[in-house]
Amino acid sequence: MRSQDYDRLFLSPPHLGRHELNYVSKAIEDNWVAPVGPNLDGFERDICEFTGARHCVALTSGTAAIHLGLRLLGVGPGDEVLCPSFTFVATANPILYQGATPVFIDSEAETWNICPERLREALEAGKHQNRLPKALIIVHLYGMPCRLREILALAAEFGVPVLEDAAEALGSRYEGQPLGTFGTIGVFSFNGNKILTTSGGGALVTNSAEWARQARFWATQAKDDAPYYQHSELGYNYRLSNVLAGIGRGQMELLEDRVKKRREIYAWYRQHLAAIPGLSFGPLEPVGSHSNRWLTCLLLNPAETTVTPDQLRLHLETRNIESRPLWKPLHLQPLFADVTSYGGEVCTELFTRGLCLPSGSAMTDADLQRVAGAVRELLVAE
Ligand SMILES: *Cc1c(COP(=O)(O)O)cnc(C)c1O
Predict the structure, then answer these.
(1) Where is the domain boundary, 216, 236, 253?
(2) Atom of ligand 1 lying closest to residue 168 CA
(3) N or C: which end of the chain has fewer CB within 10 A?
């Protein structure tokens, strides 16, 4: 750690409790230092219990889970996969791993997530050309549920299976049901900055026992049932370590508490800063939606303030406070320069107007005051 890191306020640092170390110590004492063992089984059980999913496969990352999920859905070379433009690149990279082509869909303003109208356009165009997409990936950005009712109805109407990237949305709910369980396959991430962490890790959930078995098989090098090393299919080394799963077990005990705290942080920022002219906060919850408020995002309105999100970011930096731009839309990424996109103006505007504030669940009142003070310094004219 550098000396200036001591009072640095990070965007979303890991927040451990007391029980992680017990699980980790036990793994080491019992010599389960491998991608197999009781913590791994327990972590998968914990995730099933919390979400209500029937099966869970713990993996090295959320990206690996998306990759296996797409392969389970039969996505391969030449296929198209619909995907929101407004998301982290890890949502779309596995489409390329499978040799398939992403097609990006704009956001809608209410939840910032995939827009049902643009989605219908894409599906109708696919149907018209007689090449429906092989899968639809949905994302709940910053923990906010996407418009699930409309989107699932569209997917059903056109017969396109849904992979639900709930990497940012563990602990969020839609009409009382935990996110991650709405798609045929759901994905969670336990990366260092997510609401819970195993340092790095992910999980795939599904109600299909056969798919869970298949995912585990591919994740452990696809070894055939033979006394020697025989392989008929392509596999990967994607299984989570039993040591890291121990961190995950301790973290899962804290999930409800972490969601509560992130929601309080969002509410605090809103209460203390929303009156500043030109400043507003990320999406309100539509009726029936319950967000884990993974990150609190603000928006600056250029009609009301000359301060830009980047000026604010640099100002916070001088106070040793980390903030980050919203995800840069994928249709604007050089990597995807040739990709077809349905709309894109809505998420582009969110990107140019937004900034994510420190939102870690270990933040104190003094930390929040510090961020608010620094925001006011720049945005409130003396
Ligand atoms: C973090 C994240 C991922 C990837 O998860 P990793 O565990 O980091 O591989 C995928 N999609 C979204 C929306 C994410 O935020």
Answers:
(1) 253
(2) 15
(3) C
